[in-house]
Each structure stands twice: as structure tokens, then as C-alpha cells.
Design brief:
The chain is α/β, with parallel strands linked by helices. Helix content is about 40%, strand content about 15%. The strands form five sheets. A six-stranded parallel β-sheet has the order 8-7-4-15-16-17. The protein has a four-stranded parallel β-sheet with strand order 9-10-11-14, with helices on one face. Strands 1-2-3 form a three-stranded mixed β-sheet, with helices on one face. Strand 1 and strand 2 form a beta hairpin. It is elongated and about 105 Å long. Bound molecules: magnesium ion. The site of magnesium ion has 7 residues, from loops.
């Protein structure tokens, strides 16, 4: 081969490889050699590519690229002169599949590429894909609800399917929410309405966890800044909520109708020795026009005015996560999945658990720089557990 032609061919290969990422093209050029006699360029390729279809595809591409890099228009002949031994049998099988794949609709093509990757992984001694998927790393899944499984009354894309797949795999599932204005039964019903299998005993709300905490710590009577759901939870475990009785603790939940006079009354109980306990410390919750003041604002008002440090049950404090894990062996692999770095991810960290952040922000943007607690993984939605 003349030096000048050889350098043209190298340029052609560089240009083609740079422009085409499709694997069968890349492989084809890796196994291809060039012979030049005068103006006849003969391109030799292994037997496995003995296909008129491929030959036609590459013939035009090569001709155009040679012209683009050199201005020359040599005669090109592609011959299938290579030896099949140049590549292994399994690779040859894969290339045969690749030829077919190129002609398939996109969805089928992706599925087949996946299959090919699996064969390659198996050849490298890797476990099957199912065992390499993120979900396979864990036995117990703690799910935050809003922003992970649903937003408002709408299931998020992929959440119903993903939860069903985890069930099929026999995984243990818990749903944990900082929302004190609901009960476990109501949460389970809502999940079922959206198509997610759930039982009351799999749900942990901050109201339920707070009532359990009060019971375990021996509180007999408390003053509630909350709606009827926390009151109901307290009733279930025999913790009194008689405002006229002796108040051992002020418990902060949420109710839109709480007045400043109620908060002042609560402060009075704290001055007289009552403990300050909060279902959570979330400062805002999402509203139609932007974030609205939440439990944490009321809690902060009390803390600032009384100078008493609260006991906080919800995420990111470990109480509620520990309640969710009650009855689950500490040896199993558990993961927390949430959309809020400050509560879910920090909560997982405080409980010593790995965490997956559901976020549509790419990993290299957004909160990453300032994040104190980094998630173990970041996913756009729950379907990524199976990729
Ligand atoms: Mg959330």
C-alpha cells in the first residue's frame, strides 16, 4: 500500500469510528483490512460479515468518507476474505444477531442489545443482570411517599409497576411518611387506590410513631397541637389528651386551624415543666402557590420562646425509621428511598442505612455540592431499581 493511501485509510477509519457509535459498525471496522492496487481499493472483512446487506451499507459510507478526507474517488470492492477464526464463536453469534437487530423496531432492538450485553457479561464471569440490578442489593425497602410513589393524588411514573415487581421478588416493604395528619389505614387505602399493594402494618406515619413513643416513654396525658388523627393514635395506645388534666408533654403535629393563642397556651405548659415533643420538624410543605409553613414553624416558635429543646420523632431523626424497622432482623440489607435530602437521605444516614435519592436533577448538578449526606444512588424514578 502506498504511504499516502495508507494515511488516507487511517483518516477514514478515525472519521468513521468517531461518527458511528453503533456497535456492529465499530466491530466491522475493527476486523477490516485494506489492500490497494492502483486505484482499486479492496477491503477485506471476516466471513461473519458476509452479508450483502452490510456490504451495501458500508460500501457507500466508505466511499463518501474517502472522498471527504482526500477528495479521491477510488474503486472500492469489499470482499469477505477474512477468517472466521479471527473472532470467537460466541462473538460471531452475537454479530449475526446484530445484523438482524439493525432492521428491527427500536424497542425490540434495545431488548436484543440488552441480551447481547448479558452474554458478554456472562462470558466475563459476571452474575446475571437480575442480580446486578440495584433492587437485588437490598431485602427491605423503606419508601417515602410524596415525591417518590405519588404526588398528591397521582402515582408517579413507574412507581406502581416497581412496587409490584419488588413484591414479586418477595422484598419487605415499609412506607414512611412525616405527615402527622393521617393514619396508617388511610395511607394504605390511598396506596391501594393508586394501584400499590399495601397493608396498614407496613405504614409508619409520624403521628403513629409519636403516639407509640409517648406510650413507651410512659406519658399518661399530653396537650396536642394537631388534628384528630394524632389524637386518635394517642387514644389507641392509651395516652390521654385531656387539656384540663396534668400536661406532661406538648406534642406538635399539624392543624390549619391552630391559633396563636393555642401556641401560647402550649408555651405555658412547657414553662410549667411539660416536655416538648414534635411529630416532625419540616418547616414547609408544598402548596399550590409555593411552600407553606408547616409543623417545624410552630415547633420553632415554641423552641425560641421557651428555650426548650424538642424531641423530634419524624425523619431525619431516627425514631420513626427505627419504628419502621421493628420486627425486622438487623442482618437484612435495608435501603431508604426518598426525594428529600434533608429528611429522607439525612434520616437514612442517621439510622445507619444506605439511601437512594429520587431526583430528576442529574447527579452532577443541584444540591450535590452542599449536600451533607450523600445518597448511595440517585434515580429519576423507581424503575431504575431494575436497570
Ligand atoms: Mg417526599
Amino acid at each position: 500500500m502506498k504511504k499516502q493511501e495508507s494515511s488516507i485509510w487511517e483518516q477514514v477509519l478515525v472519521k468513521i469510528r468517531a461518527e458511528i457509535s453503533e456497535p456492529s459498525f465499530q466491530t466491522w471496522f475493527t476486523h477490516t483490512q485494506l489492500e490497494i492496487n492502483d486505484s482499486n481499493w479492496t477491503i477485506q472483512t471476516p466471513n461473519v460479515f458476509a452479508s450483502d446487506w452490510l456490504t451495501n451499507q458500508y460500501h457507500n459510507l466508505i466511499k463518501e468518507t474517502i472522498y471527504a478526507v482526500s477528495g479521491e474517488t477510488p474503486e472500492i470492492k469489499i470482499v469477505h476474505a477474512g477468517s472466521k477464526e479471527a473472532i470467537s464463536d460466541s462473538e460471531a453469534d452475537i454479530y449475526v444477531i446484530l445484523r438482524q437487530i439493525d432492521r428491527l423496531p427500536e424497542q425490540k432492538r434495545e431488548a436484543l442489545y440488552g441480551m447481547i450485553q448479558e452474554r458478554r457479561a456472562a462470558e466475563r464471569g459476571q452474575p446475571p443482570k437480575e442480580e446486578r440490578m440495584p433492587f437485588a442489593k437490598y431485602d427491605v425497602f423503606l419508601f417515602d411517599l410524596d415525591g417518590v410513589i405519588y404526588v398528591g393524588n397521582r402515582a408517579l411514573p413507574g412507581s406502581v409497576e416497581s412496587l409490584a415487581r419488588l413484591r414479586e421478588q418477595g422484598k419487605t416493604i415499609r412506607f414512611i411518611t412525616n405527615n402527622p395528619c393521617t393514619t396508617r389505614e388511610r395511607v394504605a387505602k390511598k396506596l391501594k387506590r393508586l394501584g400499590v399493594e399495601a397493608t396498614e402494618t407496613e405504614v409508619v406515619t409520624s403521628a403513629w410513631a409519636t403516639a407509640r413513643y409517648l406510650q413507651q416513654e410512659g406519658y399518661a396525658n399530653v396537650f396536642l397541637l394537631s388534628d384528630e388523627h394524632l389524637e386518635w393514635e394517642c387514644e389507641q395506645v392509651g395516652v390521654g389528651t385531656d387539656e384540663n388534666g396534668e400536661i406532661e408533654a406538648v406534642v406538635v403535629g399539624w392543624d390549619g386551624s391552630i391559633t396563636f393563642a393555642d401556641i401560647q397556651r402550649a408555651a405555658g405548659f412547657i414553662y410549667r415543666g411539660a416536655r416538648l415533643i414534635a411529630t416532625n420538624a419540616d418547616v414547609t410543605f408544598p402548596g399550590a402557590d409555593g411552600p407553606l409553613p408547616a409543623v417545624g414553624v410552630m415547633l420553632e416558635t415554641l423552641r425560641m420562646s421557651t428555650k426548650v429543646e424538642p424531641i423530634i420523632i419524624g425523619k431525619p431523626y431516627p425514631q420513626m425509621v427505627e419504628k419502621a424497622l421493628e420486627g425486622i432482623s438487623p442482618d437484612v440489607r435495608t435501603v431508604m428511598i426518598g426525594d428529600n435530602p434533608d429528611t429522607d437521605i439525612a434520616g437514612a444516614f442517621n439510622a445507619g442505612l444506605p439511601a437512594i435519592l429520587i431526583s430528576d436533577k442529574p447527579a452532577d448538578l443541584g444540591l450535590n455540592e452542599e449536600e451533607v449526606y450523600k445518597p448511595t444512588a440517585r434515580m429519576v424514578n423507581l424503575l431504575e431499581l431494575f436497570r
